[in-house]
Amino acid sequence: MDIVLSGIRSTGKLHLGNYYGALLNFTKMQDTSKCYFFIADIHSLTTHPDPKQLHQNVKNVLVDYLAAGIDPEKSVIYVQSDLHETAELYLYLNMHAYMGELAKTASFKEKARKQPENVNAGLLTYPTLMAADILIHNADKVPVGKDQEQHLEMTRKFARRFNNFYGVEYFKEPVAYNFGKELVKIPGLDGSGKMGKSEGNAIYLSDTPKEIEKKVKKALTDSGPTIPNSVKPDYIENLFTILRVVSTEEVVNHYEDQWNRCEIRYGDLKKQLAEDIIKVTTPIRERILEIHNDDNYLRKVTSEGAEKARERASKTIADVREIVGFKKF
Ligand code: TYM
Fold it and tell me: Is 194 assigned a catalytic role?
């Protein structure tokens, strides 16, 4: 049975990008694979180190996981900082990760630009911690959005390098996974880049229908095309990208047609888009409200999850210690 692993950082509430890039795939893989889903709270320290916020952020992601349909009876759900074995593997992998390649990573360069006052070593070694998350369970498939593709390439490189250096066939080379399809990138509603937890451009799974309508209404549009079949500007293409994931093919074709004939009615498009987003998020939001105060349940899920995750992780660490040459006197 394939081993599946993925995680989401605890840096805020989850949004449509997290859902279509990651979470929806998590729920689809639980019946056919051995799944590990964790909350990347150590990773979040690289950008969100406030100790007063951290626990609430971890709780938000945990509740969103459960509300979106990750079932603790089928999947192992745990908090990254509960599995010390990951931190230990991270340490060993760092001995075979080079400054140059880490500094070239797109996510490092972006973060260094965004927070020039805090370019910490954790940001630089973010990809080795991610590789440790994946390799500690020797995962085959890692369901993630498009922005994580480079990190997965690096994980494969680190696994290969470890095997070559020590002359073992120990780690497998995991792949970024989206059911044989292209990895997903959901854009923000502000016409720029991707939807992000801290970008102020997101629709959260916990947003009320009113909030969603308001956000969609505010999305940037224009007076419409004047030349038939013209290429859409980015901010319009973004609305269509979201429409393609939440709506039916028929709806998408209808608005593509309107666009191509220079008859696009943005008001109708936005109304339909908001309606279809609300259809997806409503059951999740209701479940969030049901469980977000059930601390006993949340404690049970995470403590049992950490225990189950440790079964495989402690074996990996024992093997790795032997491979790198640590011996008892
Ligand atoms: P994070 O928290 O940034 O994102 C979590 C997941 O959501 C996906 N995602 C998106 N997908 C499509 N469109 C978007 N706008 C969008 N925004 C976010 C991300 O691709 C990701 O799958 N490094 C990871 C966390 C992590 C991890 C791991 C993942 C730590 N260790 C090991 C897999 C395996 C991250 O940045 O998550």
Answer: yes
Q: Measured in angstroms, how far is the CA atom of residue 326 from the centroid of ligand 1?
A: 34
Residue 146 counted as an annotated binding residue: yes
193 is in an annotated binding site: no
Q: Which of 23, 77, 144 to mutate to test the pocket of ligand 1 (most atoms within 8 A of CB)?
A: 144
Task: Please give the average per-residue pLDDT across 5-32, as a whole number.
Answer: 96
ipTM of the complex in this document: 0.99
At residue 262, the pLDDT reads: 97
Per-residue confidence band for 181, with pLDDT thresholds at 50, 70 and 90: confident
List the structure tokens of 124: 């630089």
Q: What pTM did the predictor assign? A: 0.96
Summarize pLDDT for 136-172 with one digit per residue, the tens. Answer: 999 999 999 999 999 999 999 999 999 999 999 999 9
Query: Which residue of the set 111, 141, 215, 270 is catalytic?
Result: 111
Task: Domains for the chain: give ranges and CATH numbers.
Answer: 3-184+295-324 (3.40.50.620), 209-289 (1.10.240.10)
111 is catalytic: yes
